[in-house]
Amino acid sequence: HNVNFSDWPWLHWTDRRPEHIALAYGEQQFTWLQVNDRVNAYAKQLTEQGVRESDLIVAVSANNLTVLWLYLASLRLGACCVILDPKQSGEQLNDKLETLAAKFIWLSEADLNIFADLPHEGAQQLVFTYNEKSLIAEPFTVIVCTQSGVEWQAKRLASIVFTSGSSGKAKAVAHNAENHLYSAAGLLQSFAYTAQDNWLLSLPLFHVSGLAIVWRWLFAGGQLTLPATSNVIEQLSTVTHASLVPTQLKRYLHERDISTDQHAIRLKRILLGGAVIPVVLTDKAKSLGIDCWSGYGMTEMASTVTAKPADNSAGVGLLLAHRALEIDGQSIKVRGASLGMGYYYRGTLRSMTDDNGWLVTGDLGEIKCAEALVDTSVDKSWSELFILGRSDNMFISGGENIHPEHIERILLSHPLINQALVFPREDAEFGHRPIAVIDAMSHISVCEMNNYLQYKLAKFMWPLNYYTLPNNINVSGIKLNRASVQIWFASLS
Ligand code: 4YB
């Protein structure tokens, strides 16, 4: 299939495979015909509440069925639904509401109380009077939405996603449908996902990694499974596909180790990304028969830019179709058909690129042969991209460059360490020396760690000390927030 849909993707699939299961949520299943039905019904409700073409709707919500309908129904109306993390602080949320200046806001039932008295600049609050259960029993007729729908246009605004950004205010990245479809097309050229497969919505819709799952589903006409409980890990065995950050995979493998019920496991292919991916982790997943892929991407590019089936090299593979990548010094620059429309600010778009159309990612990397790095059991004679780390995380110790991510990768390969962040500490002799903040399953002494690092890391990179990550640290988003942990750490001394 190609990216040139002539109609709404869900209508496209309704025409071709109306009775195929498209969506599953707990016991509920929806065919493409029923998906189309729901989208139209929700669009009608939005219209009744005043939503029009080009309007912006904010939904403060974790993943659930209603927010998915709301997202699709907004598209159907030529409006755009922006999903925001309900776990962020009121201050962070206010910043985002200010950037968006949305006309409508929707709060999921579970989050209503928390944000009931948030100032949202007079945005009108949306409600749904509708009961999913009663709809199930209805005869499935396709409501042709003549008055309230707009025509499918691939270049119309289709999403706004905030990037966490290591410093400063979060930026709102705008994409159109075509950007998302090209992103999906490029990945799915090699990462197989068919109509029989179901992809778990294992990451939040307010992050590009979750949104990308929805667009791959729409692109491929596959099946999407919405987690029915908040325990995503529990449901991984029930689907064929998932996108995971490395810590999720680590938890899943741990739980699968101790689980007695290994029979009905369907999970066959996973896409990893978002942060440093330890090779020991992918090795273990592969040994269980999971086709494990390592990817590298970012919000601006609508997710994955490079990917490969995980192997014994720590690289992130090769460029996917419809993207371009250049390394300038060590600075990684990207562009292509999945690059977003711009940074959104109250109705206007600001360019994300330099004068030549490149997005400067802030990541440092190299393209090199993996051979020299690892054992020779796998013949790897091709070159691939290696991420060294973010340029703004790098520091200098005794004249040597230290990429915290490099140390973190080694720390994460330790069986007892779940999370690790490395920071510079001022040092009279060296300028700076590394310390680590970790989440470990049990206490590990500096001495034990030094033993572990002996043949893995040059001595100047050994952390001087290990601090326990507090569990009340900012948990919003899909990864540990480096800035929040650094602020917490600075407050200690
Ligand atoms: C990395 C990195 C890597 C990103 N090594 N640093 O669909 C997917 O591609 C997907 C699947 C599973 C999990 C996540 C994803 C993503 O989309 C991740 C996209 C993302 O993290 N976007 S972001 O804007 O929040 O952060 C981008 C930054 O994350 C990059 O600029 C890198 O610094 C870092 N990163 N993949 C090391 N494999």
Describe the model.
The protein has a domain at about 395-490: ANL, C-terminal domain (GMP Synthetase, Chain A, domain 3, 2-Layer Sandwich), CATH 3.30.300. Helix 3 links the parallel strand 3 and strand 4 (about 80-85). It has a 9-stranded mixed sheet with strand order 2-1-10-9-11-12-13-14-15. Strands 4-3-5-6 form a 4-stranded parallel sheet, with helices on both faces. Strands 7-8-18-19 form a 4-stranded antiparallel sheet. It is globular and about 70 Å long. The chain has helices at about 10-15, 30-50, 65-75, 90-100, 110-115, 130-135, 175-190, 210-220, 230-235, 245-260, 280-285, 405-410, 445-455, 480-490, and strands at about 20-25, 30, 55-60, 80-85, 105, 125, 155-165, 170-175, 200, 225, 240-245, 270, 290-300, 305-310, 320, 325-330, 330-335, 340-345, 350, 360-370, 385-390, 395, 400, 415-425, 430-440, 465-470. By secondary structure, the chain is an alpha/beta fold. It is built from 14 helices and 26 strands. The structure holds 5'-O-{[4-(2-carboxyphenyl)-4-oxobutanoyl]sulfamoyl}adenosine (4YB). 5'-O-{[4-(2-carboxyphenyl)-4-oxobutanoyl]sulfamoyl}adenosine binds near residues 271, 295 and 297.
Short summary of the structure?
The protein is α/β, with parallel strands linked by helices and 493 residues long. Helix content is 28%, strand content 28%. The protein has a domain at 394-492: ANL, C-terminal domain (GMP Synthetase, Chain A, domain 3), CATH 3.30.300.30.
> What structural category characterises the helix and strand content?
alpha/beta
Separation, N- and C-terminal Cα atoms:
57 Å
CATH architecture of one domain: 2-Layer Sandwich
> What is the number of beta strands?
26
Q: How many DSSP H or I helices?
A: 14
User: Which residues form runs of ≥5 with pLDDT under 50?
Assistant: 130-146
Write out the CATH superfamily name of one domain: ANL, C-terminal domain
Radius of gyration: 23 Å
- Identify the CATH class of one domain: Alpha Beta
Shape: globular
What do we call the CATH topology of one domain? GMP Synthetase, Chain A, domain 3
